[in-house]
Amino acid sequence: MTAGDAAQTAARARAAGEETEIVFVAPREGAPVVVDALAILKDAPHPAEAAAFVDFALRPEHVARASARTRYANAVPAARALARSETAQERASADPAATAKLFAPAPMDAATQALTAREWARAKSGK
To answer: Which residue has the higher pLDDT, 8 or 94?
Structure first.
């Protein structure tokens, strides 16, 4: 579970009238950093339009709105200035000791990807 996942779960619990507190605590061993990215394929049929969409999607006002709705932090500094409140991830990353323990996950080989896909499917099926 990420800090954003915890924030979304807490919001859903509040909306359902639950009186529970859900917060994200990073493991003392560290945690992976998850980053979303936008890309334009080299053989995209309309690369100019794709670039215009990326520019549109990364405008600070749009990124700030997406962060507010999803409760996930973002990597656009100007968007953070527009935010109405800090996201759970931003609060969690305010601790330099915790931030120092974040790491980028290593790429998985094909066998590990297949195993991960199988285990996720099994976990989601409840079996």
So the answer is: 8
